[in-house]
Structures are given as C-alpha cells and as structure tokens.
Specification:
Chain A is mainly alpha-helical. Chain A is 74% helix and 3% strand. In chain A, strand 2 and strand 3 form a beta hairpin. By secondary structure, chain B is mainly α.
C-alpha cells in the first residue's frame, strides 16, 4: 500500500516536473542572471510591477482561443492594430486623459469585431493549421494597416493636426506622442509601498478582466467553447454550432487585445505607429508559455507567473550577458533567442503529446477489437 | 500539372479560373498591366526586364528549395532559415580560410554541405516526430536558429579583417562585401548584353542544372516514393516505403538547396547579410512558389519558375511604375499584401492534411 502510494507520488512528481519544466528552467536562468546583472532588488520589483500592469491585459486576451482549442492566437496582433487606430484618432481629436483612453477603446471595438470576424472565418477554413494561418494573418493585416495608416489617413480619412501627420501631408508619423494620457490610468489611484510604485487602477482593470474570464468559463458560451476545444465532432453532434463558437472566441480575443494595447501604450507614453504591434503577439505568447501554459491549456495563474519570470529574464539578460562576455549585444540576442526557443519548445511538446495520445487511442481501439474478435 | 487541367477544361473560362486560381490570375494580370504601363510613365523597360531576370536568377534556387519538402508532404518549408544558416557558415568559413575569387564560391558550397546535412537531419528527425504540425514548428525552428546564430556570429573566433568589426577586431559585421570573393562569379560567366538588356546566363544555367536535377530526381524510384509519401502516407507505408526515411531525405535536400540558394543569392547581390537578415527570408520564397501555382502539398518546377518571375516582377516593377504614376511609393505595402495574402489563400484551401 505504502509502496504503491510512493510510486504514484513519484509518478506525479515526474509529471509535475515535465509539465512545469519551462518555468523551472526560467527560475534557474533568473537565479543565475540576477546576481550577475548587479541590479538592485527594489529596481527589479519596480520594473516587474510596472510590466505586470502593462502586459497582463494583453496576455489574458490569449486565454479564450486556447479554451476553444484554436491554439495560440498569433492573430491578437489584429486587435493591437485596432487599438492603435483608436488611439491615433483620439489623439487627433485631442481628447486627453482617461476619457481619451475610454474613447480609444470604444473606437477600437468595431475594427476589432471586423478583423476578428475575418480572422475567425479564415481560421475555420484553415482547420488543423490555425496557428500558422493566424500567424500569416497578422502579417497580411499588417500590410492592410500600413495601407490605411500610411496612405489613407490624412488623404481619405480626415486627420486635422499636422503634429501627427508626416510632413508630406498624409500618413501618420512614425511615433505618435500620447503625452496627454501617459500613465494616466496607472497614476489614477497613486500608491507607493517602500518605493515601489503600484498602478492600482490598472491592476483593478486587470482584476475585472480576470473575473470576466472566470465568469465566462461558466456561461453557456464558455462551456460550448470548452466542448469545441475538447472534441469538435462530439461538440457538433451535441448541437453546438462549432464554426460560430470558434469565430466568437476569436472576436472576443481580438477585442480584448485591442483594449490591452490601449493600456499597454498609455504606459509607454507613445505609439511607434509601424512597429508597436509587430512583436507584441510573439512576446505575449512567449510570456504565457513561460508561465507554464501549453498550446491547449492555460490559466490566469500562468499569465502572472509568466510575466514575472519572462520579464525578469528580459531585464537582467543584457546586463548579465555583458558581465559574462563583455558585450551587451550577446544578452540582447540571448533574450530574443530564449523567447523563440520557448515557443518552439512548447509547440514541439504540444505536437508530440497530441501524437502520443493518438497512438494510445489507436492501440486501445486495436485491443478492443481483438477482444471483440476473441469472443 | 496545371497544363493538363487547362487543356481538359478548355473553353470554359470559369474552369480555367478555378484551376489556375483567381489570386494567381489577378497577380499575373497586375504584372502585365505594370509592364504595359511602364513605357508610358517613363520607366525604362529593358532595364526593368534586366532587373527582373537578375532577381529571378538570385532567388530561383531559394524557391526551388521548397519543392522536395512539399513533395514529401512536409508542407511549405518555413524552416528555410536553417538552410540559409548552413550557407552563411559555408560563405564565412570559406572567406576565413583565405579563398578568393571563383574558388571561394566552390569552397563555400563544399563547406556548407556538411552543415546542411547535419542541420537538415536534425530538423528532419524533429519534423518526423511532429507530423501534422510541421509548418508552425518549422517557422519557429527557423526563428530560434537565426537568433541563436546571432549570438554565434559574435562569439565564434573569426579573424579575417574583411569580415570582423574594424574597431574591436572580433564579431562579424552585419553585412560583408563580396568584392574580391565570389561577387557575380556565376553572373559573369557567359553574360550576354544586348543594348541595355543584360542576361546573367551563368546563374540561370546553374539554376537550370539544379532544377533539372530535381526534376530528374522526382522521376527516379526514390523520387516517386517521395511523391507517394506526400500524397498518401498510409498507402506509401502499405507499399513498403519507409515513410520517415523518405521525409528525412526530402528535408535534407530542401535544407541543402536552401544553403546553395543563399550562396547564389549572395553572389548576385554582392553582400553576405548576417544576424537578423535571414529572419524573414522564408516568406518571400514561400509566397513565390504559391503564386506560381503550387499548393500546400503540390509543387512542380514550373510552379517555381512562373512563381519566381511573377513575384520578382512585381517586386521590381511596382516601385518604379507606382512612383512615376501617382508619386507615391506604395510598393512595400503592395508587396506585403500580395505575398502574405497569397500564403493565407493557400493555407485556407481545402487540401488533405497529411498525418
């Protein structure tokens, strides 16, 4: 009996180690790099808290498509672009502070819905390769975004203020200043504990979103999504409109990503019009995976653990790299490499697991058939 | 492939459109309109055509490297950067060892080969373990290897003064000029010049030889087996073909072609580009072969040739024509929309996903 339980315990420990190998690896990397970087703990805590406020909302937007079995939504970039368009329009209309942010979020909704619908429809056609399709989708829509922002804004879409226009008279400048709403949400409820500035209002917004996600999982729609994520055929047989459910999950994710981008950019204080969104999908996905999520399973806990570990690595890697090799570029490249390697690893693990279960399933069926024949 | 279909459905325009694909037709029509317009807007047609041919000769082999993997059902080779890295290692090592002129090109290919074989076998082994999810993982294998090599280019003990940073004396430069090495070696071989029109016959010949080799290979016993694995893996297994081995072979071939492809690209372009340069090199090659009429699991040499001409044609023609016509340089945006749109179109077609 006792032997049995130890065996089981050892088995579960091995399973635990396998499931959380990525976070453990990151804890080790951070443990090595922090002393080497020579950065003070208070600085690190400050940075992490800021980054947590900045990024959490964006990362949480990835959860719903994972629930619906559509994998990592590389198409969240679409929502980010919608958010940027909202912000550009608001800063042209010179609506400042929190009202500006809220208006930008509201403006982003129609764009997000439109892009989300398009993306969802396309992904339904590309079933089985949603991730690569959503990845290419982000590039494709980036082209359309450039067409709109670089050529149509100012020539077709009225832009009044020349401060955000390119000198040639149309198109938006490479950076749009958001000075009027810079960290307005973060500083709405000021709170400083032992020198660590805490963006209370931002955390409250994130908390509301977390509650929404928890609530959403329990709704009829949320249940449907989980059913679709588990097995599309079974879900279809039980009367769920699979295509529609999948599209809705992408639309929600896109809208949330749009809101998240507004929060992200109010913290940064300016928009890099043509590059802010391009890497955001990759970094958010890497962060989520570092937090211990996989392609088909992710929780809110993964988001926060991921932000802490990934951004800790992000802050200390260049300094640590410089300390070891005397060249700060090594650390820069190292953190880029780690971001990509983590995603690669997670994808490989997901695919091999999928295959393993499929083989097991096949063997089980074979056994059943043999038993059947033996009778 | 397309030819037979068209012949069969001659007469019905809609049938032709269906077999050729509407996006392809639009792209071809767009290029023809650009070519017709160019003399009227004051662009120099012969030099434009020279440009298209030159760019075709640079990129042809990179696009060709897609063919083996598509044939064996491994999908589009988004992992092309892996092959490119082998090529870059060959190029930099060849210069490091002090080879110059045409010889440095031959040596670069010779050095790149073992790297391509090694990386290709690891990559192929990996892709055999994750059948069905090849394309996404290939993309990220490419990205991680490029960013890994970014560190390596800094750390590896290169010494050649033409390649390392002048000031610190270590770490490779981002771009390395090939002047004095293998710049234009293939292009200068049998180069034909008629007025303003120049044709780099050597590079085209080199492409033709490799394309012919692939064409012939696909008709050998192993080549037929490769096609069988791609079109129906379970049938192929039943026929006694070792599916994993054939797939591995196709990945190694694609990687090696990628390595040679980047060397040919460099000899035309005149520079070696390191660090983040190989990052997005897979996407133009992928969209080129798709524009040429390939799909996720079907590709032929004809697709490669047509696709590369169409893609490079648009890339070269749009800036000049657009600039002269509407005084707006929209070429970059058009290029993104066309190429990514094409990949998206191909991914959303209903094709049997090989498992």
């Amino acid at each position: 009996m006792s032997k049995n339980s130890t065996v089981r315990k050892r088995g579960s420990l091995a399973a635990f180690l396998r499931h959380s190998s990525v976070p453990i690896m990151f804890i080790i990397i951070c443990a090595i790099c922090i002393p080497l970087s020579g950065l003070s703990p208070s600085y690190l805590v400050n940075e992490i808290v800021t980054r947590m406020g900045r990024n959490s909302f964006l990362i949480i937007s990835l959860l719903i498509p994972i629930m619906a079995g559509m994998g990592l939504n590389f198409g969240m970039t679409l929502g980010a672009m919608a958010g940027e368009i909202g912000l550009i329009l608001v800063s042209d209309w010179q609506i400042i502070g929190i009202p500006g942010m809220v208006l930008a979020m509201i403006l982003s909704i129609p764009f997000s819905i439109l892009l989300g619908l398009f993306c969802g429809k396309m992904l339904n056609k590309a079933r089985g390769r949603e991730m690569i399709a959503s990845y290419i989708m982000s590039f494709f829509i980036n082209g359309v975004y450039q067409l709109v922002v670089l050529y149509l804004m100012g020539s077709v879409i009225p832009i009044k203020h020349s401060s955000i226009k390119l000198p040639r008279g149309y198109g938006i400048r490479n950076t749009v200043s958001l000075l009027s709403m810079r960290q307005k949400l973060d500083n709405l409820i000021p709170l400083t504990i032992k020198g660590v500035k805490i963006p209370v209002a931002t955390f409250l917004v994130v908390l509301v979103l977390c509650l929404f996600i928890v609530w959403f999982r329990r709704t009829k729609l949320g249940q449907d999504m989980r059913a679709v994520g588990q097995d599309m055929e079974v879900a279809r047989d039980s009367g769920i409109n699979v295509d529609r459910t999948r599209i809705i999950s992408i639309v929600i994710s896109t809208i949330l990503a749009g809101f998240g981008m507004v929060i992200y950019l109010q913290n940064m204080g300016n928009i890099a019009t043509y590059s802010s969104h391009s890497q955001i999908g990759m970094f958010c996905i890497a962060t989520l995976l570092v937090g211990g999520a996989s392609v088909d399973k992710a929780s809110i806990g993964n988001v926060f653990l991921g932000v802490i570990l990934f951004h800790l690595m992000f802050i200390v890697a260049p300094r640590a790299g410089a300390a070891i090799t005397g060249d700060s570029m090594i650390g820069e490249y190292f953190r880029v490499f780690v971001s990509y390697a983590v995603i690669t690893l997670a994808l490989i693990m997901y695919e091999t697991n999928k295959r393993k279960t499929k083989i097991l399933e096949g063997e089980r069926l074979k056994l059943e058939q043999m038993e059947e024949e033996a009778k | 492939m397309n030819e037979t279909v068209t012949v069969k459905e001659k007469g019905s325009i809609s049938g032709f459109v269906k077999s050729f694909g509407l996006p392809r037709l639009i792209i071809a029509a767009f290029l023809i309109v650009l070519l017709i317009l160019s003399p009227f807007v004051g662009a120099d047609l012969p030099s434009q055509i020279t440009n298209i041919i030159a760019r075709f000769s640079w990129n042809g082999i990179l696009v060709l490297s897609m063919v083996p993997m598509v044939h064996s059902g491994c999908g589009l080779n988004f992992g092309l950067p892996l092959g490119i890295i082998s090529g870059l290692l060959g190029a930099t090592l060849s210069i490091e060892f002090g080879f110059t002129g045409g010889l440095s090109f031959v040596v670069a290919i010779l050095i790149a080969t073992p790297f391509a074989l090694l990386l290709g076998s690891i990559y192929g082994w990996l892709l055999n373990r994750i059948k069905g999810g090849e394309m996404m993982i290939a993309t990220y294998v490419g990205f991680s290897s490029v960013s890994f090599m970014c560190m390596m280019w800094l750390i590896l003990p290169y010494k050649s003064p033409t390649m390392v940073w002048g000031l610190s004396g270590k770490g490779l430069r981002t771009t390395i000029s090939l002047e004095g090495y293998y710049n234009q070696v293939l292009a200068d071989f049998l180069r034909i010049s008629i007025g303003k029109l120049t044709i780099p016959v050597g590079t085209l010949l080199f492409f033709a030889i490799l394309a012919l080799a692939i064409w012939a290979f696909l008709r050998t016993k192993t080549g037929t087996a490769m096609t069988a694995v791609g079109s129906n893996p379970s049938f192929a297994r039943a026929a006694g073909i070792n599916v994993d081995k054939i797939r591995l072979l196709s990945v190694i071939m694609s990687t090696w072609l990628g390595a040679v492809g980047i060397l040919v690209y460099e000899q035309g372009f005149g520079f070696i580009q390191l660090y983040m340069a190989p990052f997005y090199m897979a996407l133009p090659a992928v969209s080129a072969i798709l524009i040429g009429g390939a799909s996720v699991n079907k590709a032929s040499i004809t697709n490669v040739i047509i696709g590369t001409i169409l893609f490079q044609g648009i890339v070269t023609m749009t800036p000049t024509v657009m600039n002269n016509l509407i005084k707006m340089d929209m070429s970059e945006v058009i290029r993104i929309i066309v190429s990514q749109g094409m990949i998206l179109y191909a991914l959303t077609r209903k094709t049997e996903v090989s498992k």
